[in-house]
Amino acid sequence: MVVSEIVGRFVAADGRLLDIPRKRGKLLLVLDHVAQRFEPGRVYPEREVDAVLKEFHPDHAALRRYLVDEGFLTRENGYYWRSGGTFEV
Predict the structure, then answer these.
(1) How far apart are CA 11 and CA 42, in angstroms?
(2) Using only C-alpha atoms, what is the Rg of the chain?
(3) What is the pLDDT of residue 1?
(4) Mind listing the pLDDT tens digit for each residue in 58-74?
(5) Distant-in-sequence, close-in-space partners of 62: CB < 8 Å, separation ≥ 6
(6) 38 with 44: CB under 8 angstroms?
(7) Is this model's pTM higher than 0.85 or not?
(8) Which is nearest to 68 in space by CA: 34, 39, 41, 42?
(9) What is the DSSP string of the chain?
(10) Cα–Cα distance between 29 and 7 in angstroms, integer?
C-alpha cells in the first residue's frame, strides 16, 4: 500500500485527522504528515504548536505528545522545533 493511501485513510479532505492510528507504523506516517506543517529551523512557542495541532485534531495535547515522543518535534523550556520526519529537497 502506498504511503499516501495509508495517510488518506486517517485524514479528511479538509486536512483534519479522522482518527489517530493505533498501529505504530501507521501512526508514524500520520505524524510525518502533521510534522510537515512545522518549518525546519524555526522555533515555536507551545501555544503556536497547539494552534497548529488544533487544526488537525481536538486532542492537540495527545498529538503534541506523540510528535515529541516519536522524535518529530523536540521540546525544551516550552519551545518546540521540528527535529524529524521527511523533508522536501
Answers:
(1) 25
(2) 12
(3) 63
(4) 999 999 999 999 999 99
(5) 20
(6) yes
(7) yes
(8) 34
(9) --HHHHHHHHB-TTS-BS---SSHHHHHHHHHHHHTTS-TT-EEEHHHHHHHHHTT-S-HHHHHHHHHHTTSEEEETTEEEE--S----
(10) 6
